[in-house]
Amino acid sequence: MRKALTLIELILSMVIIGIVFTVIPRLVMSMNQSTQVTIKEEAMYNAMAQMGMILNLPWDNNNTQNPQILSVNAGNAAYDCNLTTGYRIGGFVGGRNCIAPPGISYNAGPIQKEDAESNDIDDFHDTNITADKNCSATLKKGLYTIGTTVIYVDDPASVGTAALSTVAKAPGQYSNTKYILVRVGYGSDSQHKGCITALQYHSFNIGNIQINSRNWN
Hints:
alpha+beta; three-stranded antiparallel sheet; 1 helix
């Protein structure tokens, strides 16, 4: 019975050990990268799905009860309703009437969740991710978390180049423009930190399109 390894066996053992210590760390790193990519893909898909749901909802809670263009208290005067014609800039005969029926006031409301179900844009407003570049989400569990912010911003100019604002108006000031920001960050359970992606959209107070129609005889 041999009591020692031959030189060839020793060399082969060293080669095998070297391969193991070289390959295993690379496999672990590759698996971690694959997991991170999977998290990002799923997070981005869900962020886009949420933005799609938001864009298909009424602009304001009052639009769930009527289709009118709503009155605002701090919008660009160029977009105010023309009380003579019943339309405003960009309107056309037979559609988007901005005059409310007598005795009924159609005004834009604050950014808040008015109902248990999400039936307008504001209902998705939930600042569970901070506004910093790291998309902090220390209060949220999971591999990633989605935060949606909805704010009123200044209306764009009615002529020339339209610059879109992302700065919130003062509390109690309602314009014709809402800025929607959907941010995705890693959750507190994830080994990663920072933002994954951010989606932005500007939604405007245009009411629901109404066009007069006649039957062909």
